[in-house]
Amino acid sequence: MHRRKWIAAAAAGIVIMLFWSFLSQLGTGGTLSKLESVLQDKVTKQSDAARKPNVNIKLITIDQASLDGLGQFPWDRSLYAQMIGMLADAGAKAIALDVVLSEPGNDPAIDAAMAETMRKYPNVVLPVVFNFKARQDQAGALETESISYPASTIGAGPDQLGHINVLQDNDGTVRKLTVGLRDNAGRMVPAFSVKLANYLLDASHQIGWDAGRNGWYRGDKRLPVDARGQLTTQFYTEPREAMNADTGYDTQSFVDVLTGNVPPEYYQGDIVLIGPYAPGLQDEYLTPLSPVLKMYGVEIHANMAQSLVAGKFYTQSGQGIGYALIALLTLLPILLFARMTGYKTFIVYGALVIVYTLTWIELYQLESVFIPFTYPFLAMTTVLIWSVVRYYVMERTERGRVTNIFGRFVPRTVVDELLASGEEVKVGGQRRDISVMFVDIRGFTPMSEKLEPEQIIQVLNEYLDICTKAVFKYNGTLDKFIGDGVMAIFGAPVSQPNHPELAVLAALEMKRQSAELEERCLREIGVPVRFGVGINSGPAVVGNIGSQMLRLDYTAIGDTVNLAARLESNAKPGQILISDATLNRVTGRFDTAFIGEIKVKGKEKPVPATEVRGQTESSPSLHPIREFEGREGT
Is 90 exceeded by the pLDDT of residue 429? Predict the structure, then answer.
């Protein structure tokens, strides 16, 4: 490829790379970022389908049956105190109540009883709700407007608090756990699920905030939270509409447990989440598992707690990795596509997409890491589009250029072959091995004196048409008309190893096709129209020669051309003369006769000349030609 083409490809690659890198930086929360999230959801859904819920995490739901049996929400807090006492006395490891109790109750005695329950059972967790400002920076730290704690009359201690904020991405889907949030005093309030997970983790794997190291740790391993303190967790159950008995957490109705239909001992050694499980309570969210089916908040807390217990969460690679991948999937394809055309480009593109997609999936499944997909993929697709458009524009330009140069001189098949071969057309000049043919009418001057101008033009056009068709039939290049003569080239611009044979075959074709014209002229005007042909083979300089201002013609120059012209001038009417250079490359294929040496201008020594009379019986010609049967000149 020319240096300028490489420079153009590299420049295009850099522009495409910078364009998509810039968009990836600005695209947080935009359509393409949402597409990235959707693709990740598809993969996590397939992966999550193989997981099972932790049997030590159980749900007690405030469902429609409980609302029907115990009355509409909000309930008397004595019901919660009674339930907590039953479960704790039966040996539940931890009890989490996903019900906001931020205001004092109507009956101080009931609140006092609830406070006594909280003091008696320290393994109870109550919710804290952070209320954020309406407008948030998607990537930056969350800005708190107010915080709702359990009412002071309930008496919950600091170690019995966990925030229940379930934050949604811009598409309304919950994918991340906010591990902890700072209160107004600067203290870190862990998530509900963090408090629960710690009850199932041993001392060496406890999750907590390390102020000295300024990060959240699970044991000695730092949790991969983002700038908002969020961790992308995994899911172990499906949305409730897609569940069966084996795919969800153990779920029992609040009223059934409270009335003894489900014995409290059933929860011995388990962590228990109590929370809303009815549509009217407005605590349900979309998850990566379905764009339609929702999960209740209590289910999401359970899934996040299990993800923390298992230490299974996935991370997003850094922005630097994204830039590097955009650069890789821009510059590599542009270098590959620059070397190929047509369907090969699409095959390589498809292979790159498959390899990158499989790598993307494997990194998630093996390392729980998501590298960017959308922006690198779009960068690579942009390169494909640019390469295809560039190829067709260049092909169209090249086709027009080649057709403009050679369309008048060679048959259409030669132009198509030249374009299909990819052979570079150096119109500025190059040395090529070719065969050159000169043809000239014998007796044209006496014929002109006997004919009207219109008749002269008619005969001349018929003769030139015969010559042109013969040259084109054997894929020669019609160099020029020289008065009543013709110059043709074989072996350029398309290389033809057998160009000497093609030139001789074209000459014999002219001889055969001109028989009718010769007889008609002899009959009508008494002068036979016959021609002489000279053919020589060898090196010559071919290219566009002429004036840039007026006209450039593709032609050949050199000694090979000059000798062909001299042979033609020495040929008698109806005679085809070839040089030794041509004869040596067609020996045995044609019926030839050595006529001797002829003196030619520009040569000190006489030049051997051989007449071609026809084809031999065994000639492996491209087109069968019978020997000319007209009258031969002597």
Answer: no
Per-position b or e across 12-31, b if 16+ CB within 10 A of its CB = bbeebbeebbebbeebeeee
Answer whether residue 508 is part of any domain. yes
Phi, psi torsion values for 217, nearest 5 degrees: -130, 145
In a domain, 47, yes or no: no
Same domain flag for 62 and 146: yes
Domain's final residue, options 267, 286, 314: 314
Query: DSSP letters along 118-153, please?
Result: HHH-TTEEEEEEEEEPSS--SSS---EEEEEPPPGG
Same structural domain, 308 and 345 = no
What local confidence, expressed as pLDDT, does residue 632 receive? Answer: 36
Asked if pLDDT for residue 48 goes beyond 60, the answer is no
The C-alpha atoms of residue 417 and residue 238 are separated, in whole angstroms, by 62
Task: Find, among 472, 410, 191, the residue nearest to 304 by Cα.
Answer: 191
Strand locations in 477-529 (E): 477-482, 485-490
Alpha helices in 243-282 (DSSP H): 254-258
pLDDT, greater one: 253 or 423: 253
Host domain of residue 304:
52-314
For residue 560, pLDDT over 70 is answered with yes
What type of residue sits at position 280? G
**pLDDT tens by residue, 359-405:** 988 888 777 788 888 889 999 999 988 888 887 776 666 666 666 55
What is the Cα 7 distance to its own chain's centre? 21
In the chain, the number of structural domains is: 3
* 310 and 323 co-located in one domain: no
Q: Is residue 620 part of a domain?
A: no
Q: Same structural domain for residues 286 and 349?
A: no
- Burial letters 201-219, b for 16+ CB under 10 A, else e: beeebebebeeeeeebebe
* Residue that finishes a domain, picked among 287, 314, 341: 314
C-alpha separations of 253 from 76, 286, 469 in Å: 17, 23, 96
Q: Which of 221, 147, 208 is nearest to 180 (CA)?
A: 208
Overall pTM > 0.70: no
The pLDDT of residue 626: 35
What's the token pair of residue 339? 């070397």
In this structure, the answer to whether residues 323 and 308 fall within a common structural domain is: no
Find the range with the poorest average confidence among 123-132, 399-408, 424-433, 526-535: 399-408
Which residues, at least 6 apart from 320, have a Cβ–Cβ distance to it below 8 Å? none
CATH number of the domain enclosing 507: 3.30.70.1230
pLDDT over 60 at 549, yes or no: no
> H-type helices in 407-498, by residue range?
412-421, 444-450, 453-473
The answer as to whether 43 is a domain residue is: no
Cα distance between residue 555 and residue 532, in whole Å? 21
